[in-house]
Design goal:
It is a single chain. The protein is an all-alpha fold. It has one domain. The chain is 78% helix and 1% strand. It contains 15 helices and two strands. Strands 1-2 form a two-stranded antiparallel sheet. It is globular, with a radius of gyration of 20 Å. It starts with a helix and ends with a helix.
């Protein structure tokens, strides 16, 4: 048993080191070539070799899916020690300060116009207060993390359906099939739990919270597509987090009591959500987009629900009924079809 325990720890340690390599290299590619007199190659060290070898291009998408999926796991664990809005307000306030300091340290630019600050604030409130707040509330009300991931992963499907009237983009037949399959899969997953025809039941409040999360991230994505290109990444994200934190503090004051059970487990999951998700995953997303892999990045969303389902099974013992697994597969296929580009 001791050998098995040590072998497990060794595997986990190696996995963490690989994640650190990829995410630290990603971060270094986003800072100026010169930073207070030190060259990027001096700062990056062996991480630059990872870029030159081509391993980063192959590992980055996989790392993004794995890290992004842990956000739903973090919602389940974090809400054991504090109420949803309290956890998120603390997380985003710290992340906002960290990104602001990084913006200053690396001499990155700040938005030049007041309307860019306003737009960043609105996007942040939708994306981080609405999306994350809805997800955390849904999980806290008992919606399985895999089902929460499935609902919000319909964001590319809903954006595609609305892109015609709002953004003037036209969908091809394959994408419309994907839209239909995406919604069909979610209906298959949710119907047994809502109608109590399954061993696992979902409350209406939990499902409504997940839908609010989906609508919020969809609206934020459409706004980002229209207005986000001219807003600096690091500073703009810091503004987004700050605006969302303000809204979440107000929500926590109205519905919660700010009680936090400060345990090592909570500190650990909070540190992960700040460093790996709010900073690392966002920077990794920016890097993927800068490398010209926007189409492949978008298609990564279809992997999040099944990866989250596996994580939830291993960590929490969550079991989805067979019909829910079928719905998950149907919906994931729909997301993939929506995001697939015609060559």
């Amino acid at each position: 048993m001791f050998r098995s325990y040590m072998r497990t720890r060794f595997v986990c340690a190696n996995a963490i080191l690989h994640l650190w390599d990829v995410m630290s290299t990603t971060f270094l590619t986003l800072i100026p070539v010169r930073c207070r007199g030190y060259s990027r190659s001096t700062l990056a060290g062996r991480s630059v070799a990872l870029v030159k070898s081509g391993w980063l291009d192959r590992l980055a998408p996989l790392v993004f899916v794995l890290v992004w999926s842990t956000g739903f796991i973090g919602a389940r664990i974090g809400t054991r020690y504090a109420a949803p809005f309290t956890v998120l307000a603390l997380r985003l306030a710290i992340a906002s300060c960290a990104l602001a300091l990084l913006t200053v340290a690396f001499r990155s630019s700040w938005p030049n116009r007041s309307q860019d600050y306003r737009r960043s604030a609105i996007i942040g409130i939708l994306l981080h207060a609405g999306y994350l707040g809805g997800t955390f509330v849904a999980v806290n009300l008992g919606l399985p993390v895999s089902v929460s991931a499935l609902v919000v992963s319909l964001q590319p499907v809903l954006v595609a359906a609305l892109s015609g009237p709002i953004l003037g983009e036209r969908l091809i037949t394959r994408q419309w099939i994907g839209v239909a399959l995406g919604f069909m899969g979610v209906i298959i997953v949710l119907t047994p739990g809502l109608t109590h025809h399954s061993t696992t039941t979902y409350t209406a409040g939990a499902v409504i919270a997940a839908i609010v999360s989906l609508l919020s991230t969809t609206a934020a994505t459409i706004m980002q597509k229209r207005f986000g290109a001219s807003i600096p990444m690091l500073a703009g994200t810091s503004v987004q987090y700050a605006a969302a934190a303000v809204v979440l503090v107000i929500a926590a004051a109205m519905f919660e009591n700010f009680n936090i059970n400060w345990t090592p487990a909570f500190v650990g999951i909070l540190a992960w959500m700040i460093g790996a998700l709010s900073i690392g995953a966002v920077l990794l997303m920016f890097w993927l987009l800068r490398r010209g892999t926007a189409a492949s990045f978008s298609s990564l969303y279809f992997l999040v629900p099944p990866v989250t389902a596996v994580m939830a099974y291993l960590l929490f013992g969550e079991h989805l009924p067979p019909v829910a697994l079928i719905g998950l597969a149907v919906s994931s296929l729909g997301v993939l079809l929506v995001r697939e580009r015609v060559r």
